[in-house]
Design a protein that fits this description.
Keywords: DNA-binding, Nucleus, Transcription, Transcription regulation. The protein is an alpha+beta fold. The chain has a single domain, classed as DNA-binding pseudobarrel domain (At1g16640 B3 domain, Beta Barrel). It is about 20% helix and about 40% strand. Strands 2-7-1-10-4-5-6-3 form an eight-stranded mixed β-sheet. It has a two-stranded antiparallel ribbon with strand order 8-9. Strand 5 and strand 6 form a beta hairpin. The radius of gyration is 15 Å and the shape is globular. The N and C termini lie far apart (about 30 Å).
Length: about 160
Amino acid sequence: MPKSPIMCFQSHIFRSKKGTATEKARALERAIAFNSQNPFFMVSMGTLYAYGRSNLNIPCKFAEKYLSDQKPGNVILLVSGGKTWHVQYISRDFGSRRKTELSIGWRAFARDNKLEEGDVCVFELMKGIGVTNSHQSLGKRSECTSISKQQILKYI
């Protein structure tokens, strides 16, 4: 049986070191400067996201364009050191709009990676079977690898 195509998000974190307005602005500037040939979206960690008190919303336009043919289910969040988190990926209708988000498991991921208010995450969409992508981000080398019949979100 052939492997299903996988969806891989390589994610980059831009930390707001002291949580001051200046540091938050610098983190946002660094994230905005991120460039890739692959589609990506950016999420600024507010209090609810950073401390896992809320699901992580994926921007509607990004979800409509790139995720509309994906079935909700489980995804794997993978950090550069190889540790993984199983997170539920869901889509729900709200009136005429569809809301797509990471839910169960997001709290553990945010806590374990010490996300803080003001940090900015950029999620870069990688596609393919057996994708290997070497990418420099904040001085770290990372790879997205295939996991049969799973979606992968890669977080650095």
